[in-house]
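Entry 14. Ran structure prediction on the chain below.
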Amino acid sequence: MTLSQTDTPINVNDIPLDQIDVSDPGLYQNDDFYEYFRRLRREDPVHYCADSAYGPYWSVTRYDDIMQVELDHATYSSAAHLGGIAVRDNPNGKQMASFIGMDQPEHTGQRKAVAPIVAPTNLRNMEAVIRQRTEDVLDALPRNETFDWVDKVSIELTTMMLATLFDFPFEDRRMLTYWSDVATADFDAPGALVKSDEERLEILKEMGQYMGKLWRQRADKDGGFDLISMLSQDAATKDMSPMDLIANSTLLIVGGNDTTRNSMSGGLMALCNNPDQFAALRADHGLVKTLIPEIIRYQSAIIHMRRTALKDTELAGKKISKGDRVVMWYVSGNWDDEVIEAPMEFNIQRKNVRRHLAFGAGIHRCVGDRLAEQQLQILWEEILKRDMRIEIAGPVERIYSNFIRGIKHLPVRIS
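Output, C-alpha cells:
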C-alpha cells in the first residue's frame, strides 16, 4: 500500500518490505517517494515486487547498482520486443521500435544518424537563436499578475526548439507538445489525453502521417540538417518502416521535450523554495554553471528506465532470472547518500555536481544532454540579466506518472 491509495499518512517503515511497490504513479504526483527509496536502499537495494499493476519486477535503487545495469548491455536489454524501457510492457514492441528500444548493433547505427544535430559545432550555431527566443519569451511575460510558467515559458521554449530540430512548421509546433504528452500519458491520470493503448496508437499514427509527409519531401534532398532529413537520408535509417518512424519520432519528441521542459519548471520551483540559493545565484551569476546540473539531478525528470534480463544473473546478491523486468530508479540513485552528499539539499555549489543519473549512462545516455543543458543555462542567464523577481503564486500541480516526473501547472508572479 502507498500513500496515494489512502487518505491517512503512512509510515513507510510499517509496510512489510515485500509489499512495497514503488511503481505507483501517485507516489510521484504527491512527491512522496523519497522515504520509500531511502528504506529500499538501506534494507533491500535490489528489491523484488511480486505483485504490481504491471506485473513482477526488480527495483534497482542504489547509484552504483544502477550504473552496473546501465553499462552491462550483454546482460540487460532495452529491446522493445522484450518489453522496452518502461516498467509497463510496450504493447507495440513487436511491431515497432525506436533506437532506444534496440540493442547493439542496430542501436548504434540509428543513434549515429541523428547525433550530428547535437554535436558541439551545431550547439554553438544554435546558441544565438535559442538566446533570442528566450529573450523574447521572458520580455513578453506579464508583470504583477499570476500566470502559468509551464505554459508560457517551459512549453513554449522547448516546443520552439523541437520545431527547429525537426524543421517543423512553426505554426503547428504545439502539436509536438501534444504528441509528447499523448505518448507518455498514464491512462489513469485525471483528465488523461488518452485512455487506452489503441487510442494512443491512433493519435501517434496521425503523427506518423504528418512526419511521413515531411520525410517524403526531404528524402531525396541531400544535406538537410534536421532530424527528419537525417533519418530519411542516413543508410542506417532511410529504409525504416512507417511504424518505426512513429517510434523514432516519438522518442525524439519526448526526449527533446520532457527533461528540458520539466527542468525549466522544476529549477524555478527549487530556487523559489530555497531562497538562500536564489540569493547566492543573484550575487554570483557564475554559479549558473553548477546550477544547471544540480537542477537536472534534483528534478530527475525521467523517473525510471527498465531493462529485461537476457540471462540468469546476480545483482547485489540477488538472483535475477532470464526474462525478468529490472527497473533502474533514477529518482533513487540521484538521492543515494552513499554517493551524493546531502542529496535532499538543493545546493547550487555542489561538488561533483555532474555525478547524477538524470541522463542515464552507457550507450543509451540521452543523446541531447548538452542541448538540454544549453537551453537551461541560457534561460537562467537571461533571467538573471533582467533581475527578475519570481515567486510561486499558487498550488503546483504535478503529473500522474511513474515515468515522467513532470509539472503540469506552476502558477507564478513576477514582481
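Residues 3-414 form a domain with the Cytochrome p450 fold (CATH 1.10.630.10). Will compare against last week's run tomorrow.
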